[in-house]
């Protein structure tokens, strides 16, 4: 009887395994990702199946956030985009094509005449955020991947509580897994003060819900009174101000005033509808914007709720517009074939392509995997710099003194395909000049990696990196 039961279990598992692999093949995913999951399923049988059910299912086509819910939010009074408002001399045809593509692949409207401030360290970023929130009169919308239960986060908590008690409407979204360390006491104090707090995709024991934990909200957004918006790469944590064992954390954020804040507001509203199932309504959320400088911003979002990998497509297209230089900050560099090819082609065509990565990462497996991707880039002529003055967490790209890309998206498969991300695509010489200058300053704290040094790594190190690379589609 026991033998018969064992045989039945093996047959059932074999059928389930073959069915799962069939589903993987029929979904026509990236071959590398499909092969990675097939290896996990075949060589770690029971545990592999558990992790696939928990982390491996594809939801882009199933739409975690339905198009119907998005439409119900985006049909709002916003500052409309008219390319004729801009001086056409500022825009080359390839820039216009990039703008049009981002509008088609993610409905990323363009917003003209904004005021843009670049914030390049945690101290100045949080100072600006706290001052803006302290001056809020009507509402505060805040959304981060990580809220640590530490000094800087509790300062923010106290400020949000104070503003809520003053009558300001405060809404806060935190990612359930990214902010897993938040205590019940922390959250209760906010709720008791009247702050509307919602987790993004909290864990549930039901299989239908728990298997979405691989899809995280990695966005960083703040909107105050519909007039001032922030986005970038920072999370709410002490390490961005005081550092940690890796040293000080270098990151990039932007503060925006003007029409583009309407784009920030719309994205927050979509996310709020998903976590709360209630629409945010009222003209106070879209005040008439002031007119500032001649520039254009598109806030591009992507994730399992979008038809296209919009940010990846935008970055690839932006790189291919380059004629002079492409300077890239990336804490985790495990690019898709599309991004890797664009970087290499730009370098091969004579564009000055520079990639800056941290010398030491907060994720060892990612760090090892990153190194395996550098060979072809170096061979193509990309200059690679390893940042030594702490940890480089900035996700910023500047191209030809005109295009700047700042946001939450890393150059890896997780950010492009699985996370909910948001990046600002900025068309503005002033902003690009500032980011260019900051990049050159960062280079003073870097060591350049040469092709010779990369090639002469120890064999043991190469094997370690190549093994880590096998799992890069799953990281």
Low-pLDDT regions? none
Helical content stands at: 40-55%
The top level CATH class name of the largest domain: Alpha Beta
Structural class, by secondary structure, is alpha/beta
* Strands, count: 19
* Strand composition percent: 15-25%
Instruction: List the total number of helices.
Output: 19
Biggest sheet layout: 9 strands, mixed
How many independent structural domains? 3
What is the typical, i.e. mean, pLDDT? 85
Shape assignment: globular
Q: Might you state the CATH topology name of the largest domain?
A: Endonuclease, Chain A
Level-2 CATH architecture of the largest domain: 2-Layer Sandwich
| Assigned CATH superfamily of the largest domain | Endonuclease Chain A
What is the CA-based Rg, rounded?
23 Å
Secondary structure: elements and pairs:
Layout: H1 2-26, H2 31-43, H3 45-56, H4 67-74, H5 93-106, E1 110-112, E2 115-121, H6 122-134, E3 139-144, H7 151-165, E4 169-175, H8 184-192, E5 196-200, H9 207-210, E6 221-224, E7 228-232, H10 239-242, E8 249-257, H11 260-276, E9 296-302, H12 310-320, E10 325-329, E11 333-334, H13 337-348, E12 352-358, H14 364-372, H15 374-380, E13 383-387, E14 391-392, E15 396-399, E16 403-407, E17 411-412, H16 413-418, E18 421-427, H17 429-443, E19 446-449, H18 451-455, H19 459-470
Parallel strand pairs: 3-4, 4-5, 8-14, 10-12, 11-17, 12-13
Antiparallel strand pairs: 1-9, 2-8, 3-6, 6-7, 7-8, 9-18, 10-15, 13-19, 15-16, 16-18
Helix pairs in contact: 1-2, 2-3, 4-11, 5-12, 6-7, 12-13, 14-19
